[in-house]
Write a structure and sequence with these properties.
The chain starts with a strand and ends with a helix. Helix 1 runs parallel beside helix 2, helix 8 packs parallel to helix 12 and helix 9 packs across helix 12. It is of the alpha/beta class. The radius of gyration is 22 Å and the shape is globular. Strands 9-8-7-6-5-4-10-11-12 form a nine-stranded mixed beta sheet. Strands 3-2-1-13 form a four-stranded antiparallel beta sheet.
Length: 428
């Protein structure tokens, strides 16, 4: 679909045209802007749905291990808050799980991730599991996402010994909306600071954006003050998806809120105030790549990557799951079980709980689909609509910033036959 971009450099106005299916950006004469080397990669990825389920390969690049959903926190918009719990991993499962990897996994995953709940709530299981996997896959990167409240000298040393990357889920000044703040506890704070001192670039603070926590520059300032340094990374950084009532309440509620959020974000991008957020660079860089390579929309998968054949989430029983945030006994909004198969029958795994963005009309008619890549792939109905609205308002400033870098002109309005008025005028 072709979109008209009405742009300004503060003095002059120009029109450019962008096609979301070919990612071609052109001026009024038809000249391509920002063109470079042709796109290299698969021209068409699987477009999964309940009628066309996705599968998994033996060569897995990203292995996500779900230990269970137990957590010592109960955060207000947690995607797992109301997910029913299935069987959880136990220390007795570890050796069999690792031994059986050779029966279904070919080669070494590029990355292995350990997920909860809170992974360190499963310390008796996590410790031997991490050690066996590090010994088996010495070149794979290991990653743990944690709330940071259960770190200890023993755990910190274990993290260093196994060279594990750590993502600490923390929303900065908006943490009170999510849940407790480990920085408020002197012992927890010291363990976080110790890990940052020892691991620095192997630790990120994963802050989520929501209607109560929209100011990324304030989040940067929070961590600069808490850590006593300006050298740190903030991971995640995108808008929350509304999986339940808490997520709905954290979503943008009015058009005025959305406009204020867009204006705040574009001003912070242009002033360089949010460079500590990894998405600031990655989103703009991906837009530059998409446009310069004229990436076909068929080559664009889902934002989480769980639709890919080389990405899998499993529990310690070998059950394959839609993603790491669900359980074997939970059902997707489309009524299908989130348990999509078992690794012992890898060829029978069917990802039928999800909907590829190409099957959602709003995505095909959206200028941002090349980088947004759709909201959560298993959300449906009203909550998917909320997630789509959050995502549009979150992504459009980064799209505009990329266009300005390519042309010298900042988009003021995006027009097409189907784009709603509230999405067309960008800043007012």
């Amino acid at each position: 679909m072709r979109f008209t971009l009405q742009c300004s450099d503060g003095h002059n106005e120009r029109r450019f045209f962008y096609d979301n299916q070919t990612s071609l950006l052109t001026d009024e004469s038809g000249r391509q802007i920002g063109g470079g080397a042709p796109f290299v990669g698969p021209q068409a990825l699987p477009r999964i749905s309940v009628d066309a389920p996705g599968g998994k390969d033996h060569e897995i690049k990203q292995l996500k291990i779900q230990l269970g959903l137990a957590c010592n926190y109960s955060c207000s918009y947690c995607s797992q808050r109301f997910v029913p719990r299935g069987d959880e991993g136990r220390p007795a499962d570890v050796e069999k799980f690792v031994r059986n990897l050779d029966l279904w996994l070919t080669g070494a995953p590029k990355q292995i991730e350990f997920w909860g709940g809170e992974p360190f709530a499963y310390w008796r299981t996590l410790k031997p599991l991490g050690e066996l996997l590090r010994a088996k896959f010495p070149k794979s990167s290991l990653l743990i996402i944690t709330n940071g409240s259960l770190l200890s000298p023993e755990i910190n040393q274990w993290i260093c010994d196994l060279d594990i990357g750590i993502g600490i889920s923390h929303d900065g000044p908006g943490q009170h909306v999510r849940g407790p703040d480990p920085f408020d506890d002197p012992e927890q704070r010291e363990q976080i600071l110790d890990l940052v001192r020892r691991r620095r670039w192997k630790v990120s603070f994963n802050a989520m954006i929501n209607r109560h926590n929209l100011d990324r520059a304030a989040i940067v300032a929070f961590f600069r003050e808490k850590l006593g340094t300006g050298t740190f990374n903030i991971g995640e950084g995108g808008f929350v998806d509304p999986y339940d009532e808490g997520g709905e309440a954290a979503s943008l509620q009015t058009h005025d809120e959305a406009l204020a959020f867009r204006r705040l974000t574009i001003s912070q991008i242009r002033r360089g105030e949010i460079s500590r957020f990894m998405i600031t660079d990655s989103r703009i860089r991906e837009w530059m790549y998409s446009i310069s390579s004229a990436r076909p929309a068929g080559a664009v998968g889902q934002k989480c990557g769980m639709d890919r054949r080389d990405v899998i989430a499993v529990d310690l029983k070998g059950n394959a799951l839609t993603c790491q945030n669900v359980s074997t006994v939970a059902k997707a909004p489309n009524g299908r079980p989130h348990r999509i198969g078992h690794v012992s029958r890898l060829s029978s795994i069917k990802l039928d709980t999800a909907t590829h963005w190409s099957h959602r009309p709003m995505c095909g008619e959206c200028p941002l689909v090349q980088v947004c890549k759709g909201a959560c792939m298993f959300l449906e109905g009203h909550r998917w609509d909320l997630a789509c609205n959050n995502a549009y308002n979150d992504h459009v400033p980064f799209f505009a910033a990329a266009i300005e870098r390519l042309t010298g002109y900042l988009p003021q309005r995006i027009s097409s036959e189907t784009l709603p008025p509230e999405r067309s005028a960008l800043w007012k």
